[in-house]
């Protein structure tokens, strides 16, 4: 793969499952697309792929001898995922670590992504084989971390942040998902899962808070229907703008160091 065709490669992860990192990745990809950017998604959660379901992409991947062609969402986002390699969405991927890591490198190096402004990598939970493979074999420009308000989520995300930092992957910022729910009658913000901890985590690591996304029933409905690209909100628009600024700032910092 010619890295020159990919403007920025950014991982989206958390270290912890269930915080909505795939939803954040899909929403961010959709928002960047609306902002006129060309963006693709590499679904690196091999045993628990979510991106195809969220974006309503049935696949398949096609190889005409010149490399793998990604499947493309209705909104024009190219995607590769292990979901496209099984019979149906309920078929599990039961592979050992070496096969999983080999597929990750193929998804990056053997896919005809074309020219992209951003390639987002939806990371799996944990800090073992797949994250290690991504960090060591793919030229990552930075990573965005997703957490929820619970203290446990903050604890686990710090493990992922420390891993990325130890492996010299730039930390771009943090996103708090399920931060609050807005009362449909009076508009008051209700902190459904307790007080926010994203500010403390961001301050501890010297990072910006890229966004705080609320619990929104319409997001779940659209995700279940494979139409998450249709969701629009001020919070997601702010996330897209903050993400681009964080990537630009990290790029300028890297250039200044050189």
Describe this structure in words.
- The protein has 258 residues and is α/β, with parallel strands linked by helices.
- It has one domain: Rossmann fold (3-Layer(aba) Sandwich), CATH 3.40.50.
- It has 8 helices and 12 strands.
- It has helices spanning 21-34, 51-55, 97-109, 129-137, 151-166, 198-205, 217-224, 234-257, and strands spanning 6-13, 39-43, 62-63, 68-69, 71-72, 78-80, 116-122, 142-147, 171-176, 181-182, 189-190, 209-212.
- Strands 5-6-2-7-1-8-9-12 form an 8-stranded mixed sheet, with helices on both faces.
- Helix 5 (151-166) links the parallel strand 8 and strand 9 (171-176).
- Helix 1 (21-34) crosses helix 8 and helix 3 (97-109) packs parallel to helix 4.
- The longest helix has 24 residues, at 234-257.
- The two termini are 24 Å apart.
- The model has no long low-confidence stretch (mean pLDDT 91).
Which stretches are low in confidence, meaning pLDDT under 50 for 5 or more residues running?
none
The CATH class is: Alpha Beta
**Assigned CATH architecture:** 3-Layer(aba) Sandwich
By secondary-structure content and strand pairing, the structural class works out as alpha/beta
Radius of gyration: 17 Å
The domain tally reads 1
Keywords:
alpha/beta, Rossmann fold, eight-stranded mixed sheet, 12 strands, 19% strand, globular
Layout of strands and helices, then pairs:
Blueprint: E1 6-13, H1 21-34, E2 39-43, H2 51-55, E3 62-63, E4 68-69, E5 71-72, E6 78-80, H3 97-109, E7 116-122, H4 129-137, E8 142-147, H5 151-166, E9 171-176, E10 181-182, E11 189-190, H6 198-205, E12 209-212, H7 217-224, H8 234-257
Parallel strand pairs: 1-7, 1-8, 2-6, 2-7, 8-9, 9-12
Antiparallel strand pairs: 3-4, 5-6, 10-11
Helix pairs in contact: 1-8, 3-4
């Amino acid at each position: 793969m010619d890295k020159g065709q990919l403007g920025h490669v950014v991982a989206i992860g958390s270290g912890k499952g269930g915080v909505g990192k795939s939803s954040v990745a899909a929403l961010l990809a959709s928002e960047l697309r609306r902002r006129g950017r060309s963006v693709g998604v590499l679904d690196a959660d091999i045993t628990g792929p979510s991106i195809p379901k969220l974006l309503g992409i049935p696949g398949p991947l096609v190889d005409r001898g010149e490399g793998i062609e990604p499947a493309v969402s209705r909104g024009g986002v190219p995607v590769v995922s292990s979901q496209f390699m099984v019979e149906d969405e309920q078929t599990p991927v039961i592979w050992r670590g070496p096969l999983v890591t080999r597929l990750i490198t193929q998804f990056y190096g053997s896919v005809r992504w074309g020219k992209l402004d951003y390639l987002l990598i939806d990371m799996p939970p944990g800090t073992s084989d797949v994250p290690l493979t991504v960090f060591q074999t793919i030229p990552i420009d930075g990573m965005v971390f997703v957490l929820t308000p619970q203290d446990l989520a903050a604890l686990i995300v710090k493990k992922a942040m420390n891993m990325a930092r130890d492996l010299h992957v730039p930390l771009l910022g943090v996103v708090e998902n399920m931060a609050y729910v807005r009362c449909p009658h009076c508009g008051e913000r209700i902190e459904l899962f307790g007080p926010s901890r994203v500010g403390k985590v961001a301050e501890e690591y010297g990072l910006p808070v890229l966004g705080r996304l609320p619990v929104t029933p319409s997001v779940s409905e659209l995700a279940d229907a494979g139409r998450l690209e249709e969701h629009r909100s001020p919070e997601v628009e702010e996330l897209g703008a903050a993400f681009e600024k964080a990537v630009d700032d990290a790029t300028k910092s890297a250039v200044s160091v050189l």
